[in-house]
Amino acid sequence: MTVIFDGIASGMLLFLISVGLSVTLGLMGFVNLAHGAFAMLGGYVCVLLLNRAGVPFLATLPLVVVVVALVGVVLERTLYRRLYGATHLDQVLFSIGLMLMAIGAAHYSFGDHQQPLVLPQFLQGQINLPGLDLGIYRLFLVIVGLAIAAGLELLIWRTRFGAQLRAAVDNPTAARGLGIDVGRVFTFAFALGSGLAGLGGALGVEVLGLDPGFPVKYIVYFLIVVAVGGSGSIKGSLLGSLILGVADVAGKYYVPQVGAFVIYAVMVAMLIVRPEGLFGRRVAR
Predict the structure, then answer these.
(1) What is the pLDDT of residues 154-164, one digit of tens each?
(2) 229 pLDDT exceeds 80?
(3) Rounded to 5 degrees, what are φ and ψ at 96?
(4) Which pLDDT tens digit goes with each residue over 163-182?
(5) Where are the domains of the chain?
(6) pLDDT score at 221
(7) How far apart are CA 188 and CA 261, in angstroms?
(8) What Å distances lie between residue 161 and 29, 84, 149, 154, 189, CA to CA?
């Protein structure tokens, strides 16, 4: 039971970091391989606010979202917007270049060592139940992840903005004809995806660590979540993250000699069964 809970918590952290990519890649159709750089930025902003400015940990989280979202707005208006109509290859090359620049900037500014982060006392320790030890911080990650998943589902499928975003992605010309400001909708969506990436990066410092190599080490995991969950599906990303998290933790616990192989094997098996992802739309052939 402890392994299952740790796997759920690991999967929820994976969801928290990758859900922003579900917005920019799954909903907006932009292949943003620099997503991990936004998560890394969120981690560094959190560490700076916590260690140098003395801001309480929970208070750093909304500040991280705002700061990274604003950076996302600036980059979207100056760089990303120029590539919305470009080929996926152009988007991949651009975002990889941006990611490498971010890694170089982080290395120059903070060095190559892991950044220290001390959680507040109330998030440390464990809750001991019969047959189950619950890490308090991991339980906190599960609660935050569920809240964000529910909020995003409501935003995308139950609000005017969600309808405008889906219309702008499916047919931007028709959306403009209906009076939708497609540019503003895309800017807000990109800011949302960036802010969520920053939040996930801040929450992940304690578990995953933080160094300039963060975007490269974990970008494959983020892409796996989006692929397994299905393009543009928040609940698919959530369920896929939980399945992958449990499989990864269980594999490393019971068969440590194969390392991270289990998560890739599960991904391949799931995509063979459902190539469009758990909740992706089937493509007519």
Answers:
(1) 998 889 988 88
(2) yes
(3) -65, -45
(4) 888 888 888 888 888 888 88
(5) 15-216
(6) 85
(7) 37
(8) 17, 19, 17, 10, 9
